[in-house]
Amino acid sequence: MLAETINNELIEAMREKLPEGVNLAGLLMDTLYIGKEAVYRRLRGEVPFTLAEAATVSRKMGISLDKLLGAAFNGNALFNLNIVQHGDPMETYYTILSGYVETFRKLENASYSELGTSSNIIPQTSYLKYDALAKFRLFKWLYQHESADFTKCYEETVLPQKLLDRQKEFVSCAQQVKSTCHVWDKMMFQHLVNDIKYFAGVHLISDENVRLMKQELLELIDELEGIASKGQFASGNDVQIFISNINFEATYSYLESGPLQLALIRVYSINSITSHDPEVFCSIKAWIQSLRKFSTLISQSGEMQRILFFKRQREIVAEL
Question: Of 114, 212, 261, 304, most Cβ neighbours within 10 A?
Answer without folding.
Answer: 261
